[in-house]
């Protein structure tokens, strides 16, 4: 661990401990440039991801240490966790999860509890300050240059790190690009809508899907028009049926979650048809695929970052709103706006929102079907980063292209290649022929068509 001032302007003021974990290289003759992993969210603990990521990136570990830093506010580094972040919170009633008013009240209680902590000045958890912590870890480990891998929000962290410490970066990999000027809550609506529209179009283009789900284009708008309504849903842990008042945002969250992964999104047409027939359990189950409360996520850190950077006074203007007729119009923004109204905001420099030329070879990876960090963000960032940047769009892939083993191998070659130009040109098209998963057909549907 390294000790860091809570407020960088007061180096002798209150201190916090920034924890990190190092998974050592397997080779005795290891390379000096370690690989640093930047977690997503914002709010994820990098250390909690160390075991699965070390296993997934075993090829990188052959000659390089893997370093996982719990960003301030997450994991063990001055955590800003709310009561609902505890793994036990998965047992809470479904009504508590789906009621926006209750969620806002819980966030307000959490903010008050966090502010009472010794490290509870919520203004000092911005990405810029956190990246200075990461560089302090680099220096403590005696590493001259790092290879940075970030996913989702972690790509914003990497972009901030290499802007602040360009001399310390040897290679950078951005998986699912979330640029600093993105305004996460506002951009989400348009990107979710695009992913939904893509699913509808794919079904219309597939004869079997179009035959089984002819009403799919109208299905989601029609269901939204019936809300709010009380429905019976099984609790994902206990299995006990509970009555929940289904709201617009709750339904959109159920649809949004499976869009992250095309394999789960393939089940949406059947689940929405079932919901239209009054059977909401399949759609509710799909809504849980991203996980419920808990899992090492720090909600307080999440809102400290978003309220300061995405909805703060210096943030770029909001993008144009979707037409009111679009199902995802306004989706997800109301809770953020309400919570951030009373959340302390940290100072964010104007430079934070800029994208200077990349100081080192940088790969940007985008899933073509990603509902939150689609290729449009990666393309814009790659253009700004200049000749040392390369944007790779992976077809028929959702959020997180490095879930594909062949992409991890490609990244390992990119990082291991000594020459910059050769590294940038390494093959990255291993998933170019990956097909989109066909629409899921429940077994009862096959039986109805007389199929085995």
Automatic annotation (TrEMBL):
Keyword Signal: yes
Gene3D superfamilies: alpha/beta hydrolase
GO molecular function terms noted in the UniProt entry: hydrolase activity
Keyword Membrane appears in the UniProt entry: no
Location of the AB hydrolase-1 domain: 34-400
Record's keyword terms, sorted: Hydrolase, Signal
Superkingdom of the source species: Bacteria
Residue numbers spanned by region Disordered: 432-452
Similarity field: Belongs to the peptidase S33 family.
Name of the molecule in the record: Alpha/beta hydrolase
């Amino acid at each position: 661990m390294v000790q860091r001032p809570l407020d960088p302007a007061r180096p002798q003021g209150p201190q916090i401990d920034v924890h990190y974990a190092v998974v050592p290289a397997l080779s005795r003759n290891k390379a000096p440039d370690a690989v640093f992993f930047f977690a997503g969210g914002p709010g994820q603990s990098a250390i909690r991801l160390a075991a699965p990521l070390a296993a997934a990136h075993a090829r990188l570990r052959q000659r390089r240490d893997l370093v996982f830093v719990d960003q301030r506010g997450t994991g063990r580094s001055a955590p800003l966790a709310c009561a609902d972040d505890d793994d036990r919170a998965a047992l809470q009633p479904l009504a508590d999860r789906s009621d926006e008013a209750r969620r806002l009240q819980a966030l307000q209680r959490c903010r008050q509890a966090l502010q009472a902590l010794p490290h509870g000045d919520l203004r000092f958890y911005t990405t810029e300050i956190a990246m200075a912590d990461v560089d302090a870890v680099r220096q403590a480990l005696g590493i001259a240059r790092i290879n940075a891998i970030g996913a989702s929000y972690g790509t914003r962290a990497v972009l901030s790190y290499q802007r602040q410490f360009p001399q310390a970066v040897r290679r950078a990999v951005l998986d699912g690009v979330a640029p600093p000027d993105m305004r996460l809550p506002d951009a989400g609506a348009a990107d979710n809508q695009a992913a939904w529209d893509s699913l509808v179009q794919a079904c219309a283009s597939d004869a079997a899907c179009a035959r089984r789900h002819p009403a799919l284009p109208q299905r989601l708008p029609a269901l939204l028009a019936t809300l709010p309504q009380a429905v019976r849903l099984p609790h994902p842990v206990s299995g006990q049926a509970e009555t929940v008042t289904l709201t617009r945002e709750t339904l959109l969250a159920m649809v949004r979650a499976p869009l992250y992964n095309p394999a789960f999104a393939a089940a949406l047409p059947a689940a929405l048809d079932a919901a239209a027939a009054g059977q909401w359990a399949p759609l509710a189950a799909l809504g849980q695929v991203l996980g419920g409360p808990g899992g090492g996520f720090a909600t307080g850190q999440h809102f400290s970052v978003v309220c300061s950077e995405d909805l703060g006074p210096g943030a770029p203007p909001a993008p144009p709103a979707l037409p009111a007729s679009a199902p995802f119009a306004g989706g997800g923004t109301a809770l953020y706006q309400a919570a951030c109204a009373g959340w302390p905001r940290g100072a964010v420099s104007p430079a934070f929102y800029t994208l200077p030329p990349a100081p080192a070879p940088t790969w940007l990876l985008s899933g073509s079907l990603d509902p939150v960090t689609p290729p449009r963000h990666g393309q814009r960032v790659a253009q700004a980063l200049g000749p040392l940047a390369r944007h790779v769009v992976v077809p028929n892939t959702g959020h997180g292209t490095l879930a594909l083993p062949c992409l991890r191998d490609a990244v390992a070659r990119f990082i291991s290649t000594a020459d910059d130009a050769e590294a940038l040109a390494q093959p990255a098209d291993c998933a170019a022929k990956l097909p989109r998963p066909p629409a899921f057909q429940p077994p009862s549907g096959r039986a109805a068509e007389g199929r085995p």
